Amino acid sequence: MASGPGGSGGGDDRSNTAIITRTRTRTKRPSLYRVLLLNDDYTPMEFVVLVVERFFNKSHEDAYQIMMHVHHNGVGECGVFTYEVAETKVTQVMDFARKHQHPLQCVMEKK
Ligand code: TYC
């Protein structure tokens, strides 16, 4: 006589009962961080535009607008990223500014 999977072949119903356990997948959205440029009196406008184009993938027009916003308001947002990406942007901008001996400051803040 054939006996199916989990079956005894002897008519024991309990041996054919499947138990499906499913744990709920808990998804947590990552915290987001703004990356900001700060104004100063010495960094050339064109350098700031280049930074915004290069590290924040903005068009020349958008980069110019962001630079002018920072120039007039003291601070401005270049983008919003997860923690590690924001941290990388800040490091890249600060390294690039230092390399060119400009005092440009870039910071991140939790949204
Ligand atoms: N204020 C600077 C100037 O007049 C230009 C500037 C803009 C500097 C934005 C920094 O994040 C900055 N040359």
Question: How would you portray this structure in words?
Answer:
The structure is a single chain. The chain is α+β, with helices and mostly antiparallel strands. The chain has helices at residues 45-56, 60-73, 83-99, and strands spanning 32-38, 75-82, 105-110. It has a domain at 35-110: 2-Layer Sandwich (Ribosomal Protein L30, Chain: A), CATH 3.30.1390.10. The protein is 39% helix and 19% strand. The chain has a three-stranded antiparallel beta sheet. Mean pLDDT is 89; it is low at 1-12. It binds L-tyrosinamide (TYC). Residues 37-41, 43-45, 48, 67, 70-71, 104 line the site of L-tyrosinamide. Residues 1-10 have a biased composition (Gly residues).
Range of helix content: 25-40%
- Summed over residues and divided by their number, the pLDDT gives a mean of 89
Give the CATH topology of one domain.
Ribosomal Protein L30, Chain: A
Number of strands: 3
- Any idea what the radius of gyration is? 28 Å
CATH superfamily (homologous) name of one domain? Ribosomal protein L7/L12, C-terminal domain/Adaptor protein ClpS
Which molecules are bound besides the chains? L-tyrosinamide
Q: How many separate helices? A: 3
CATH class group of one domain: Alpha Beta
- Protein structure class: alpha+beta
The outline comes out as: elongated
Kindly report the spatial arrangement of strands forming the biggest sheet.
2-1-3
GO biological process, one term: protein catabolic process
InterPro entries: ClpS, ClpS_core, Ribosomal_bL12_C/ClpS-like
Family: Belongs to the ClpS family.
GO molecular function: peptidase activity
